[in-house]
């Protein structure tokens, strides 16, 4: 079973009622109270996580940290994830005054916008993309749309209810007009984002070096980026502390070329470059990568 297949078979944890209760507490009593409650919530989810999930995360953290990962490391990873989920409630409802954001690389975005040139942004399940959309708007000078499969879980339904515009920021994959809509965004000088570290549907996986061992990554995002024929940048929104985020934009390629006769080799080469940079970010910010599954497909 591939790492992605294992993730796809993992059921969503946490009921819709519990999520709605936490949201009411957060918005009614404020961030400090809700943040304090994250400690027992994190302990519960860490203690009740499947043993296979904890083993997978220990392996990831050991590679990212360069040492054996202990319970404190698992706690920090789950707590960072829970904190980003809590922050989404405030970011999506416009309660951003207490948040602090550092932005790296917006000059590149502004120069592209001045030329009327659209971009493809490759991201990852890292930190909070809502920080980019909700409070990155002041730094990101153009329209940003995500090209992805809609989630459909309790969390997505809740977050869509908090910000009705959120669903509109997604271009759903799988529709006949999905790529046409994405191309129109590019033609307007906008940015189309893709999460390239995990497949959400059946996708061909390509093993590439990642944190010291071959890991299967999906070929789909690189193929879609090549179809859009636009310059490609990397984008990460990293949680660096309580209500603190760093948005980082980096050049990746003028455009992705997948030549006939060497298409598979080109996809593997681009994926390897992406995985190399993702691994560097994971080592620098090990508790920000939220892939709670067997990434390297080490368990049958």
Automatic annotation (TrEMBL):
<dbReference type="InterPro" id="IPR004960">
    <property type="entry name" value="LipA_acyltrans"/>
</dbReference>
<keyword id="KW-0812">Transmembrane</keyword>
<dbReference type="GO" id="GO:0016746">
    <property type="term" value="F:acyltransferase activity"/>
</dbReference>
<keyword id="KW-0012">Acyltransferase</keyword>
<dbReference type="Pfam" id="PF03279">
    <property type="entry name" value="Lip_A_acyltrans"/>
</dbReference>
<dbReference type="GO" id="GO:0009247">
    <property type="term" value="P:glycolipid biosynthetic process"/>
</dbReference>
<keyword id="KW-1003">Cell membrane</keyword>
<keyword id="KW-0997">Cell inner membrane</keyword>
<keyword id="KW-1133">Transmembrane helix</keyword>
<feature type="transmembrane region" description="Helical">
    <location>
        <begin position="29"/>
        <end position="49"/>
    </location>
</feature>
<protein>
    <recommendedName>
        <fullName>Lipid A biosynthesis acyltransferase</fullName>
    </recommendedName>
</protein>
<dbReference type="GO" id="GO:0005886">
    <property type="term" value="C:plasma membrane"/>
</dbReference>
<dbReference type="InterPro" id="IPR014548">
    <property type="entry name" value="Ac_Trasf"/>
</dbReference>
<keyword id="KW-0808">Transferase</keyword>
<keyword id="KW-0472">Membrane</keyword>
